[in-house]
């Protein structure tokens, strides 16, 4: 189960009421920073932009590939550990706007995590240290540390123990 806070809305759908949720200036600033960072080829500059202007928590040596999109409304709810890779065109969401409500939740990505290209990470999930997320995966629930997951819906392909056994066998 994802860990999100739920906020009911009345009248129109929640996205129609977006600026009651978060200020226009915050969204505008975040949009500009994200657009600049998406095209910036320098990892240090990209991480500095995210840490300084979006208040994301990012560990040392973490890499955001070309075209990654962190949450535009609540980027401060995203934490990425050290020495992790977020693959090309991945989207990390900390919010969901639905018809009757909107939801907000922390996204925690551990140390030395590999996220493949074109993934979508939903709010309220945690990805454990050393996990691998296959390309084009919808991460809709927590990923155990060291696991290899993939697909839509996401499934565990190998557990940490199975991954370690495979690595050991490949070294023989």
From TrEMBL:
CDD domains, sorted: LbH_MAT_like (cd04647)
One Pfam family of this chain: Hexapep_2
Keywords: Acyltransferase, Transferase
Domain of life where this protein originates: Bacteria
Gene3D superfamilies: Hexapeptide repeat proteins
UniProt-listed InterPro entries: Hexapep, Trans_hexapeptide_repeat, Trimer_LpxA-like_sf
Molecular function terms from GO: acyltransferase activity
The protein's name: Acyltransferase
Organism the protein comes from: Oceanobacillus bengalensis
């Amino acid at each position: 189960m994802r860990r999100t806070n739920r906020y009911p809305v009345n009248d129109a759908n929640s996205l129609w009421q977006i600026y009651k949720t978060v200020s226009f200036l915050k969204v505008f600033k975040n949009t500009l920073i994200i657009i600049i960072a998406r095209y910036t080829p320098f990892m240090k500059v990209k991480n500095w932009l995210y840490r300084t202007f979006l208040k994301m928590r990012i560990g040392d040596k973490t890499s955001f590939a070309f075209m990654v999109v962190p949450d535009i409304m609540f980027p401060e709810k995203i934490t990425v550990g050290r020495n992790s890779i977020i693959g090309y065109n991945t989207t990390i969401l900390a919010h969901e706007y639905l018809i009757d409500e909107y939801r907000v939740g922390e996204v925690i990505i551990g140390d030395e995590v590999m996220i493949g290209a074109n993934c979508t990470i939903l709010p309220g999930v945690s990805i454990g240290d050393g996990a691998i997320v296959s390309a084009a995966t919808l991460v809709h629930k927590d990923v155990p540390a060291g696991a290899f997951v993939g697909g839509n819906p996401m499934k565990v392909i190998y557990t940490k123990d199975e991954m370690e056994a495979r690595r050991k066998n490949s070294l023989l």
